[in-house]
UniProtKB/TrEMBL annotation:
Keywords: Phosphoprotein. One of its GO terms (biological process) is phosphorelay signal transduction system. Residues 3-119 form the Response regulatory domain. It comes from the Bacteria. This is Response regulator receiver domain-containing protein. It comes from Brevibacillus centrosporus. The keyword Membrane does not apply. Signal peptide: none annotated.
């Protein structure tokens, strides 16, 4: 069982992703925007952080940049979810330190597969 932070501003996606990952046995914390995500990251240790690219207050990209500058958090696995699926956006996220990029829309089973690969 992994401790995962999900930062997603869309309630329906939060519920879908949250239920899917909890059904797989993972412990999940939720953030509704980038600022809340960063607060949770500073307070807890996560095995995996899933960030929506476009969120209020701080984008997933901005949160990613902050995480990589916190020495004890910099080794955490990070996944970006985004409707911006152009190659240039994916490369930008990877260059900033994202370990995986999943374009929206995606299937819950695809998400589970990538999560399990990242955690193994």
């Amino acid at each position: 069982m992994a401790h995962i932070l999900l930062a997603e501003d869309e309630p329906v996606l939060r519920m879908l992703i949250g239920d899917t990952l909890e059904d797989e046995g993972h412990q999940l914390d939720i953030a509704c925007d980038g600022e809340e995500a960063l607060q949770r990251i500073e307070q807890s240790h996560y095995d995996l952080i899933i960030l929506d690219y476009m969120m209020p207050k701080l984008t997933g990209y901005e949160v990613l940049l902050h995480i990589k500058h916190i020495p004890e958090k910099g080794s955490c696995k990070i996944m970006i979810l985004s409707a911006k699926s152009q190659h240039a956006e994916q490369e930008k996220m990877r260059a900033a330190g994202a370990d995986a990029f999943i374009p929206k829309p995606f299937s819950p089973m695809e998400l589970v597969r990538v999560v399990e690969d990242m955690l193994s």
